[in-house]
Design brief:
It is built from 6 helices and 10 strands, in the order βαβαββαββαβαβαββ. It is an alpha/beta fold and about 210 residues long. Strand 5 and strand 6 form a beta hairpin.
Amino acid sequence: MADQSSFGIAGLLCWPAFQSRSPVIHNHWLAHHRIPGRYVLFPVPPERLAEAVRGLSALGIRGCNVTTPHKQAIFPLLDRVDDLARRIGAVNTVVVEPDGTLTGFNNDGNGFIQSLRDADPMWRPDSGPILVLGAGGASRAVVASLAAQGAREIRVCNRTADKAQEIADAVGSVVKVVPWDQREDALDGIAMLANATSLGMTGKGPLAMP
């Protein structure tokens, strides 16, 4: 393990990597707070995830963030997972502990809620129905956090209905599953739309919504 007071490396496990702004954001704050280190991208295809995770400790990496498509696949590769991450069903942060073991956390939900409050301090989760597109790791975090904040109705719409139902089963009756072909109808009366799919990202198809 690297000396925790020395120059450190952290990064983002992702695939693809070119659209990420994470290095710009994190390196800005490392410099601002004079923390010796660097944040980089780790573009890892799904079939090589296990190799990459096993190498984190050996390479002296302090930890990493995890994004699409690895947030759920990384679970069995970690030594322990935080309770909140287990409830959400996804990991977005891995800490390499001093003994070299790996602990997974999920901060997606907290970050999402805070971004809403930053954009609108008067935002209320119970102001109306919320439509969430997608049922992957990001969606799980968003839905669980919205429910915890007091949302009264969350409509989850995903191309694979079974995955949306898994979220409903985990979070509770506040979640309503909407078939993908009814996503435009599900816009009726909503107070907020959250796109937790890859649609609209660089290299992906457009989010075809009015």
